[in-house]
Amino acid sequence: MENVSQEKLDPKRWLSLIAVSLGVFMALIDTTVVNVALPSIQTNLNASYSDLQWVISAYTIVFSVLLLIWAKLGDLYGRKLMFIVGLIIFTIGSGLDAVSTSIGMLHIFRAVQAIGGSALMSLSFALIGTTFNGKERGIALGILSSIIGLSTASGPLVGGWLVDAFSWQSIFTINLPIGIITIIMASLFISNQQTHHATGSVDYIGMLLSTGTIFSLVFGLVQKEMNASWGWDKMQVAGYLIMAVILFILFIWRQRTAKNPMMDLSMFKSSSFTGAVLVAFFLGAGLYGFFAYLSTFMQNYVGYSAWDTGLRQATISGFSLVLGPIAGMLTNRLRHGYMLATSALFIGVGLFTLSALTTTTATFADFWPAFIIIGIGNGSINPPMTTAAMSSVAPRQMGMASGMISTFMQVGVSFGVVFQGLHLADGYQAGLAKHLPEVTGASATTIATLHKALVDAGPFSGHMIVMSKQLVKAPFAHELQIAVRKAFDQGFISIIRLDAMLLIIGGIVAAIFIKTGGQGDSK
Question: In this predicted model, which residue has the larger pLDDT, 125 or 18?
Answer without folding.
Answer: 18
